[in-house]
Amino acid sequence: MTSLRLLTLAFGTVASIEYPDELFDRVEIETVMDRSSNSMSGGLGLHFNVPGAFGDLDSFLSMQESIETGTKAHASISPLDVGRVDFKDEPPILCETICRPVDDKDMSSARKEAGNTEANVKNVDASTTTNAEALAPGGISFLELESKICTAKGGGWVNGVEGEKGVCEPFMRASDATTKYQPEAIFQVCSSEFGAQYLPCSPYQALALSHLYEVPDKNHFRLWPGGRPDQVTNAAMKQQIGNNPSTGLDTCPDKQHIGFFHNWDENHVDSWGCLHDELYMQVLCCRRGTEKK
User: Fold this and answer.
1) Which of these, 209, 263, 260, lies nearest to 236 by C-alpha position?
2) Are residues 190 and 164 in the same domain?
3) Domain that holds residue 145
4) Which of 82, 99, 115 delimits the end of a domain?
5) Contact 262, 215 (CB under 8 A)
6) Helix, strand, or coil here: 177?
7) How confident is the model over 133-144, as pLDDT tens digits?
8) Residue 131 maps to a domain
9) Is 98 helix (H, G, I), strand (E, B) or coil?
10) Residues in contact with 258: Cβ distance below 8 Å, sequence separation at least 6, in sequence order
11) Is residue 182 predicted with pLDDT exceeding 90?
12) How sure is the predictor about 16, in pLDDT bands with cuts at 50, 70 and 90?
């Protein structure tokens, strides 16, 4: 109020300007000051009355109070109840949808689609359950999976002894030892290195399957056309005696017998040929399948 008195004295000292008495209506000024100090920090800074100027201010302050009240109300209610708070007991709006009759074909398609969806959900659940059971303790182990893959590729799985991990004996293996052409020696290289289940591979096996196994590249290997060691003289692709015809066979010249070269260079795929008997070569060995199918 001190500032109000100073302002009044300042206006009173100016004799040449006359102001209406209602401009200094203390009651009106106090009302505005109280209202502005309660709703705004620092007040409005107004210390005089301007006729007609506070009508809009009253409206503004009322609107601000309404907004603040509404915000607090919305923050305190559930989102599901917002519409009930906003609209209270107002009647709902009537909405209409244009529909067409559903015939038997539509119903059949809907049932079929629902059945397919349900079947897909069951399949997903079943596969998820199966995978979980397989990976869970007591389910299929990675060792069992490895053994199944080994068997599927024609090899033989040998279980470990006294807790040792099992091993896969692959279908095709290249020997470390080398030998000249001598039928008994060729068979002996396979059995001595890999066991009694292994015999020299035939050309058919070598040409078809060597790329699936760890056969060294750019190497020559001795093969065997098939049958016992005493059943072949110079045949290249099959045994010469027994039930097979002796004419029309691929044969090698004297002092040469069937050999195999693997990934020799960019101009040669796996190939067979007749190689000299005096050359020392590794033997390509294949495992006999003895398990029941």
Assistant:
1) 260
2) no
3) 141-170
4) 82
5) yes
6) strand
7) 555 555 556 677
8) no
9) coil
10) 203, 222, 223, 224, 225, 235, 236, 237, 252, 272, 273, 274, 275
11) yes
12) very low
In a domain, 111, yes or no: no
**278 vs 179: CA distance, rounded Å:** 9
pLDDT of residue 236: 85
Contact 33, 43 (CB under 8 A): yes
Q: What angle do CA 132, 136, 141 make, to 5 degrees?
A: 110
Query: Is 250 within 8 Å of 236 (Cβ atoms)?
Result: yes
Q: What type of residue sits at position 293? A: K
Q: In terms of domains, do 239 and 190 share one? A: yes
Task: Give the integer Cα–Cα distance in Å for 175 and 197.
Answer: 14
Q: Residues 6 or more apart from 15 whose CB is under 8 A from it? A: none
For 66-100, the pLDDT digits (tens) are 666 666 655 666 655 655 656 666 666 667 676 76
Indicate the number of domains in the chain: 3
Q: In this structure, which long-range contacts are made by residues 43-51, counting pairs with CB atoms below 8 Å and at least 24 apart in sequence? A: 47/3, 47/4, 47/7, 48/7, 48/23, 48/24, 49/22, 49/23, 49/24, 49/25, 50/23, 51/22, 51/23
Instruction: Say if pTM beats, i.e. exceeds, 0.70.
Output: no
Residues 176 and 273 in one domain: yes
The residue type found at 261 is F
- Give the E-state strand segments of the chain in sequence order: 156-158, 167-169, 172-179, 198-200, 219-222, 256-262, 271-276, 281-287
- Tell me the C-alpha distance between 6 and 14, whole Å: 13
Q: How far apart are the first and last CA of the chain?
A: 111
At 9 the pLDDT is 47
Distances (CA, A) of 91 to 81, 84, 86, 87: 16, 11, 12, 9
Instruction: Quote the CA–CA distance of 228 and 1 in Å, as a whole number.
Output: 128
